[in-house]
Amino acid sequence: MSAEIKVKRQSSRKRSRDRRISHLTPARKRTSASGRQCPDNTGQIELSRALDQSMDAKFSEYCSDPEDLFGDYDSIESDSSFLAKLDRVGQNMRQHDIEHTTSSRCPVILLAGNPDFTSLKSSTDNCPKQSMTESFLKGFTDDAFLDMPSSQLAFLQDPQTADRNCCTDEDKTSMPMRHPEKSVSTEDRNERHIAPKARKSVSDHLKRAMMANAATPSSVSRTALQKEAVVTEEISVAMQAMESVSMATTDLGPFFGLPTKVKELICNLKGIKDLYEWQKTCLNLDSVQQRRNLIYSLPTSGGKTLVAEILILKELLCRKKDALFILPYVSLVQEKVLWSLFCLRNVYNSSFIQLYKGIIIKHFCMSMANLSTVFCMHSQVRGLASFGLELDFMVEEYAGSKGRFPPVKGRGKRSLYIATIEKAHGLVNSLIETNRLDNVGLVVVDELHMLGDGSRGAIIEMTLAKVLYISKSTQIIGMSATLGNLQDIQKFLKAESYTNDFRPVELKEYVKLKDSIYEVDPKEEECFRFSRVLNFKYSSAMQKIDQDHIVALVTEVIPSQSCLVFCPTKKNCENVAGMICKYLKEDFIQHKQAEKAVLLGELRGSGNGSLCPVLKKTVPYGLAYHHSGLTSEERKLVEEAYSAGVLCLLTCTSTLAAGINLPARRVILRSPYVAADFLKRSQYKQMVGRAGRAGIDTHGESILILQDKDKVLVKKLLSAPMEICISNLMHSDGKGVLSLILSVIGLNITNSLEQIRDFMSGTLLSVQEKQVCLERSLWEVTQECVELLKEKGLVTVSTEPQDGSLQVTKLGRATYKGSVDLTYCDLLYRDLSKGLESLMLNSFLHLIYLVTPYDMVSQCKPDWMVYFRQFTMLSAAEQKMCAAVGVSESFVARKAAGQNVKKNVDQVVVSRLYLALVLQSLLKETDLWSVADRFQLSRGFIQTLLSSSSVFCSCVLHFTEELEEFWPFKALLTELTRRLTYCVQAELIPLMEVAGVMERRAKLLYNAGYKTLAHLANADPNVLAKTVENLFKKQANQIVASAKMLLNEKADALQEEMDDLLMMPLDLLSL
Fold first, then answer.
1. Among 90, 350, 675, 893, which residue has the fewest nearby CB atoms (within 10 Å)?
2. C-alpha pair distances (Å), 362 with each of 244, 261, 972
3. Confidence at residue 845, expressed as pLDDT on a 0 to 100 scale
4. Contact, 563 vs 668, CB < 8 A?
């Protein structure tokens, strides 16, 4: 920005050269008149001349103009009336000093060689307490400096500069005593009485100070200061204009109330140049504008998430409220965290000009001053760090064992909480307990139809019921695929609905029967209409292996286009991928060969040198399998490669359709079964909905392979209505109702049966009472559950007379705060109590056993030979611990030998200890491949076990925090949770906390010198991308953004802790 500063002269007349001479006058213009001083101050005159000559030499380079110091700029001397006032003040002060000197004969010390004017006599000696400078300045207020140039203000505001330039030994003004050690005794003073130094005029002092300002070196150039002044003025104008805008609206720009910059980011990051018509309609609905609850329902891949993201940004930026985004899977949470960090980093990290109602709002970054100034929404100007990541709100991940309860207070910043279903429930509980739920202005639920999905559906219902009951100002937005009973959900959420059958790409559904393809048409009597016959030549040998003609179906689209093959089991995924490779031509190997070589290297690196033999065979052809048997890092690499076009075909299970969005030109359903269960209508729609890539394909295709025996069932499947969504609070004998009642009592939401009844009337279960509660009413169910909680010792009745309110016991509080399943809370308490009696701490085994999830036991049967081999490798102390929990060496030896064991042994304990041995081996070696090979378990199962254990360890930690008798576990389980969460070498854990950094990448970062969170937070993304192998610029930006966010979050947590320590107690006694 260029700025021209004009100074208007107050007078056009030529200044008279015959003016009073001072020490600020240029040397060549000074005459003998400069020596006119008081005749009785000879010594003082000589000192003054010496000082004047010193100042002349010091400032002569600034005094070379033909007129005076200031050239055409009118100095303070232009105002004769002001100077006259200053002269009168100066004369009065000189007369005042003379009178004091005469009356009190207060001596002034003059030391030859090195004069010191800082030492004054104490007040007890009746000396003046203030010098002339102090007396003079006392009469001025801050208003006197309002019109000063910024350079002079900078000088006055810099105490070091002022002291360096104005208070040197050569020129010190009288100030309170600084050097007591230099004071002289009273006797010496009386002997060395010298007349006081003659005072200069006030105008001389003022001009001298201005000259010192001019001579002061500035760390900021005058051009920069001038630009800063112009920027400040423009921001001030914009602020005044914004204040004139009606505060009734929170809109910040033309893009649905958001700045145009948000629209540009959506285009840059997602490739979306414009919104679909349904999205525009939805965002302009009255329910959205007036902040009423809303459910919008569309087919898969219709673009539902983008609407939610825009609404979230609007809530955070416009209304300055927190937002909660609930997602069903950890992978989706991590994906959204990365996108949010990168998006928000770009919102605030670039200089931009934003037009808002005719006001130009500008963002400048001044690197010299390490400043960033942004004119933000809602008439607020916030300073951002020069890196551009000091955001107006935080992005916090609540998934797995991550997330703090309650969350750190934002200290003026808003937070976006991105959470899994279980973590969102814990988060809402903690916000209710701390009376902060009203800070959450928006709750968005993805896959709302999961309300009907077993125990997870019950948790969603509990979370939303609490939000509806507690906070009337929080808006709830639900996204869902097509629902069969949308009205029930509407009634539960008190919401309006918006439905549309829009798909960005036309979907054509087919079925394959033998070698013929039929188009699905529900209007036809047979539901199918013949389309074509497969044209692919099969040999007799190939026909026996590929009876379903999968090779023929996939080679019609790959490698130029993508394809997904959904298989009923994980093993079938691997077999189908290997089978297809056998019959592909060598041309497939040449397609993107270099990129596939890089992928293989990354996969091998993620396994510490080990590579899955199936992937080793299939990846060169552009194929891979995808299911839970892969590690999370392998799945991530496969997904990225597929999205980039390096892989053209994935064989996968149905979980891919419900997880991350990976569209394809053609989707093939290998069978109408998921494991042994026949497909549901919703599952079918979710899988075929992946067909068709918006912006790439003109249409998508789905082909369901069926056998003659399944023809009737498939017809019913294709013509059936969507399944209805039923409340799952009664799932597993009413476990959901029990958990809900326990938590609402513990959170003081309700404390009587009548209040509980009122709360339960606001649940989905109440809406569907006639469908779900067939044998007894909801009120009867509620009463029975309260009695059961009393029997289990989780709830009690208050002992206060005439009270009778319900209260949770310590065990009850620990149960709901730890999110412990009610089925296991008693068992967990007994195990922890027994563990305290003989807790072994010379290894992790005992602690690991205590946090091994109970619900994982049924998923693994011990290999007794492996069990015995691992048992014999334990230390004597560890074997003693195993015997203490109920598993002896003799028992394991007999089982390994195939002998019958008559002694009754708890099989849950036996299997749980086996899983604990797996986890201990993993923590010791951190090599998942070798552990999987040793215990003959899949890599995916071991990683699932590790993930579940870290989550359960976090739950047990919160459980023990509420029970005083378990105080030793707090420190022990905190560290174990951290170890289980990342399961890497200790030095890599800080890097693993960063979103998008897995073990392989953490090692590369560490070896490249990025060893801490601070290293990553302050890294240059360009340098990072060049330094670390196979790290793209976008990924580097995401890593740096996440590291900065984590660093800020940790700093806020420490700041909050400090604020709590310094806060004055509210109940402090006072007189």
1. 675
2. 19, 13, 52
3. 94
4. yes
Model-wide pTM > 0.85: no
DSSP H helical ranges for 271-388: 277-283, 286-289, 304-317, 330-347
Q: How far is CA 621 from CA 507, 541, 549, 593, in A?
A: 28, 21, 19, 9
Q: Pull the structure tokens for residue 106.
A: 């207060």
Residue 250 has pLDDT above 80, yes or no: no
Give the pLDDT band of residue 121 (cuts 50, 70, 90): very low
Instruction: Tell me the pLDDT tens digit for each residue of 211-222.
Output: 665 555 555 556
Contacts of 576 (CB under 8 A, 6+ apart): 550, 565, 567, 625, 651, 670
pLDDT beyond 90 at 917: yes
Using CB atoms within 10 Å of the CB of residue 397, give its burial: 0 to 12 exposed, 13 to 18 middle, 19+ buried: buried
- pLDDT, residue 503, reads 86
Nearest to 117 by CA among 165, 66, 183: 183
* CA atoms lying within 13 Å on the CB side of residue 887: 25
Separation of alpha carbons 150 and 636, rounded Å: 55
At residue 411 the predicted structure's pLDDT band, cuts being 50, 70 and 90, is: low
**Higher-confidence residue: 306 or 192?**
306
- Spatial separation of the C-alpha atoms in residues 569 and 654, rounded to whole Å: 9
Q: What distance in Å separates the CA atoms of residue 492 and residue 471, rounded to the nearest whole number?
A: 15
The 8 Å CB, 24+ separation contacts for 710-719 are: 710/672, 711/513, 713/672, 713/678, 714/511, 714/672, 715/526, 715/527, 715/528, 717/672, 717/678, 717/679, 717/681, 717/684, 718/509, 718/520, 718/522, 718/527, 718/684, 719/522, 719/527
Residue 675 has φ and ψ, to the nearest 5°, of: 60, -120
- Which pLDDT belongs to residue 257? 81
* Phi and psi angles of residue 499, each rounded to the nearest 5 degrees, phi first: -125, 150
What is the residue whose two structure tokens read 């429930």?
425
Give me the percent of the chain exceeding a pLDDT of 90: 41
Contacts of 940 (CB under 8 A, 6+ apart): 570, 627, 628, 629, 630, 631
Whether pLDDT at 425 is above 60: yes
The 8-class DSSP code of residue 531 comes to E
CA–CA separation, 675 and 655 (whole Å)? 12
120/182 Cα distance (integer angstroms): 10
| Identity of the amino acid at 193 | H
448 with 480: CB under 8 angstroms?
A: yes
For 285, the 3-state DSSP assignment is coil
Residue 471 has pLDDT above 90, yes or no: yes
Is the CB of residue 322 less than 8 Å from the CB of residue 525?
A: no
Give CA–CA dist 272/66, Å, rounded: 66
Q: How far apart are CA 633 and CA 669, in angstroms?
A: 26
The whole-angstrom separation of Cα 324 and Cα 333 is 12
Residue 551 neighbours by CB distance under 10 Å: 20
User: Does the pLDDT of residue 186 top 50, yes or no?
Assistant: no
Helix crossing, 825-837 with 939-961: angle to 10°? Answer: 80
One-letter amino acid at 579 equals M
What pLDDT score does 428 carry? Answer: 96
pLDDT for 398 beyond 80: yes
Instruction: Return the HEC string of 63-94.
Output: CCCCCCCCCCCCCHHHCHHHHHHHHHHHHHHH
List pLDDT tens digits, range 63-118.
444 334 444 444 444 444 555 665 666 667 666 666 655 554 444 443 344 444 33
- Which of 552, 9, 489 is closest to 294 using CA atoms? 489
CA atoms of 716 and 527, how far apart (whole Å): 9
pLDDT of residue 31: 45
pLDDT at 87: 65
